[in-house]
Design brief:
Blueprint lengths: L4 E3 L19 H13 L5 E3 L8 H4 L1 H9 L9 E2 L11 E2 L18 E2 L11 H18 L19 H14 L6 H18 L3 H15 L19 E7 L5 E7 L8
Parallel strand pairs: 4-5
Antiparallel strand pairs: 1-2, 2-3, 6-7
Length: about 260
């Protein structure tokens, strides 16, 4: 937005080859383009030398400090970049009052699946949604009679060791990241199942399992979810998961009428 350009290691601006909006393409398109350039060995860099140049320390002080700490001066050199997934389209299913299926649990913002996210979260959508649904939850709870719960016990879930966590991160990045396909997803799911047998229901494994199962079930590409083996987009639908008797997620799809589809 400030006029910088994404370039490869030779300085070639590559985004025009991927999208007619170039560097201002939707961020999931930009992420895939960066991923493709890096996978091809050409690298990906953000060149701010002309757009920002000597004004970098004043206009982007935090980014400037981070670059300088890595011995990169963004005033005169391009910044190495990589795609990162920093938003979530989905979560715990709620009604329009932030009520979940679990008595006493409310959810809003990026932890919730209200249907307001769409297939590619727009900038600041999650903040607006959190404000709206938090207010609705507060209004509902203000008039709710809270009953005293009975005695309950809780057991802390096991922790995944550092080596296993590093391996999980590598697999989630490489096979469940920007570009997905059935073989890589299935291989990651098999690894997660084996880790469950060895470690137990660690929270990181549960989260990874939900993501992989959801990606396997959605045989299309939509927004931030891209399946190289299913590149087309199907009719608008939402995907729901619940816990099965064997502990694995059970999945079903619900079609959305065209006039209700969130883009």
């Amino acid at each position: 937005g400030e006029g910088a350009h994404l370039v490869d290691a030779k300085g070639r601006a590559f985004m025009a080859s991927y999208h007619n909006l170039g560097d201002l393409a939707p961020r999931y398109e930009v992420a895939r383009a960066i991923h493709s350039e890096r996978e091809a060995g050409r690298g990906a860099f953000l060149d701010c030398t002309k757009a920002v140049g000597k004004h970098f320390p004043d206009r982007f002080p935090t980014v400037f400090e981070a670059c300088m700490s890595a011995a990169i001066d963004p005033r005169v050199a391009p910044i190495p970049v990589a795609p990162a997934m920093h938003y979530h389209m989905g979560g715990i299913v709620t009604d329009l009052w932030a009520r979940t299926s679990l008595e006493g649990l409310s959810a809003c913002g990026e932890s919730a699946s209200t249907g307001a996210h769409g297939a590619n979260r727009l900038a600041s959508n999650s903040l607006l949604e959190a404000v709206v649904f938090a207010e609705r939850a507060a209004r509902r709870l203000k008039d709710t009679v809270v009953t005293q719960p009975g005695e309950a016990t809780a057991i802390a879930p096991p922790e995944l060791g550092e080596l296993s966590l590093t391996e999980l991160r590598k697999r989630m990045h490489g096979q469940v990241g920007v570009v997905r396909e059935a073989r890589g997803l299935a291989a990651t799911l098999d690894w997660i199942k084996a880790a469950f047998d060895n470690v137990g229901p660690a929270r990181s494994l549960i989260a990874a399992q939900l993501i992989v199962c959801g990606a396997l079930a959605r045989e299309e590409s939509r927004g931030g979810h891209y399946r190289s083996d299913f590149p087309e987009t199907r009719a608008p639908h939402r995907t729901f998961m619940r816990r099965g008797e064997d502990g694995l997620p059970l999945i079903h799809h619900s079609l959305i009428a065209p006039d209700q589809a969130a883009e």
